[in-house]
Amino acid sequence: MTALDNLSKALSRLPGVGPKSAARIAFYLVRSSDDYNRVLADGIATIKQKVKPCSICGSYTENDPCPICQDASRDRSVLCIVEQPQDVITIQNSGAYNGLFHVLGGAINPLNAVGPENLSFGQLLKRIDEGSFKEIIIATNPTEEGDTTALYIRHLLKDKPQISLTRLASGLPIGGDLEFADRSTLVRSLRGRIRI
Amino acid sequence: MTALDNLSKALSRLPGVGPKSAARIAFYLVRSSDDYNRVLADGIATIKQKVKPCSICGSYTENDPCPICQDASRDRSVLCIVEQPQDVITIQNSGAYNGLFHVLGGAINPLNAVGPENLSFGQLLKRIDEGSFKEIIIATNPTEEGDTTALYIRHLLKDKPQISLTRLASGLPIGGDLEFADRSTLVRSLRGRIRI
């Protein structure tokens, strides 16, 4: 069973795919159609040639600069800073944001040896100096690393009081149940309570 | 973002991979190594050429007959009937079974138009007639379809009283908590209770 074992092993390195799901996917691929397997294999083999980081914002794109950076209809006075390229898609899909993006490439995480020098802060400062941003929204994850990164950005921009610096609200997820909220979420949602 | 969208769409057809995990995997593949993407793409592109159903038992193999059917050290008086090729691996990995296998290719499921004629019962009867099995273990899933299939096998073999017909025990999973057991599992585990 070497071919199946090798394929399972390769699949189990994908994010969110454990050894059991990897085996299940490998067996599925034995009985799926030739066409589907070819499309999937081609997609995986060529994705790195087709998709590159945008030289301006760092999100993934087939044309450089990316469609968002090129879109003249977007609000160029607002910049949303995210950790990863997929966060751009998530915020785009919300339909609630029409400004520009900046992808840091991660969050500051000393335990994993990710310092500010490993993230695109140089390019960020260059964009801020050359652009005319009125508001910068920090949309790093609501984790210890994301919070550290947000604090670092506040420190970076402390001599630019003309730019309003904001952070995405943290709190109870919509449709969630108070009973199942973890303590840190509840603390954040109390501290960030809003007047109605 | 067409290349990423297409890859996400293809990935989301894999079992256990929803649209969100598919997007996450697609983004991961953009920043993973060229070598890894090539190994994974090659594995997917070639798996169907390399792996075929065993002409005897129906499990997946690179050499026909499969290593289990060829293994002279296995107990040829016991046959374990399973639904899918991956079930062979699961039971093999338990280390608690040393007989032969027979893969049905699914379970009887009238709602999905899977009848006995779609499963390998012909080959099963042929093997039973030509072999010298003393025990047949039905290891179909503990679901309505698996139970129906088990009943059908009992009916098929009703004129072979020399073969002892057994079914895998159902009950509480080891390490599980009684409080979280669902009703049907509890009913099965009561009905199948054993003297200690």
Summary of the model, kept short:
With 196 residues, the first copy, chain A, is α/β, with parallel strands linked by helices.
Question: Overview of this structure, please?
Answer:
- 2 copies of one chain form a homodimer.
- With 196 residues, chain A is of the alpha/beta class.
- Chain A has 2 domains: 3-50, Helicase, Ruva Protein, domain 3 (Orthogonal Bundle), CATH 1.10.8.420; 60-167, Dna Topoisomerase Vi A Subunit, Chain: A, domain 2 (3-Layer(aba) Sandwich).
- The first copy, chain A, contains 8 helices and 6 strands; from the N terminus they run H-H-H-E-E-H-E-H-E-H-E-H-E-H.
- Chain A has helices at 2-11, 19-31, 34-50, 67-70, 85-94, 121-130, 144-156, 183-191, and strands at 52-53, 60-61, 78-82, 100-103, 135-138, 164-167.
- The radius of gyration of chain A is 21 Å and the shape is globular.
- The N and C termini of chain A lie far apart (63 Å).
- Chains A and B meet through helix 1, helix 2, helix 3, strand 2 and helix 5 of A and helix 1, helix 2, helix 3, strand 2 and helix 5 of B.
Total helical segments of chain A: 8
Measured as a percent range, the helix fraction of chain A is 40-55%
The mean pLDDT of chain A is 93
Q: pLDDT under 50 segments of chain A (min length 5)?
A: none
Could you say how many structural domains of chain A there are in total? 2
Q: And the CATH topology of the largest domain in chain A?
A: Dna Topoisomerase Vi A Subunit, Chain: A, domain 2
Number of strands of chain A: 6
Sheet with most strands: strand arrangement of chain A? 4-3-5-6
- What is the percentage of strand-forming residues of chain A? 5-15%
The radius of gyration computed from the alpha-carbon positions of chain A, rounded to a whole number of angstroms, is 21 Å
Order of helices and strands of chain A: HHHEEHEHEHEHEH
Oligomer: homodimer
Please identify the top-level CATH class of the largest domain in chain A.
Answer: Alpha Beta
Q: Main interface pair?
A: A-B, 46 and 46 residues
Structural class of the helix and strand makeup of chain A? alpha/beta
User: How would a textbook summarize the main sheet of chain A?
Assistant: 4 strands, parallel
Shape of chain A: globular
* CATH level-two architecture of the largest domain in chain A: 3-Layer(aba) Sandwich
Between the first and last Cα atoms of chain A, what is the distance in angstroms?
Answer: 63 Å
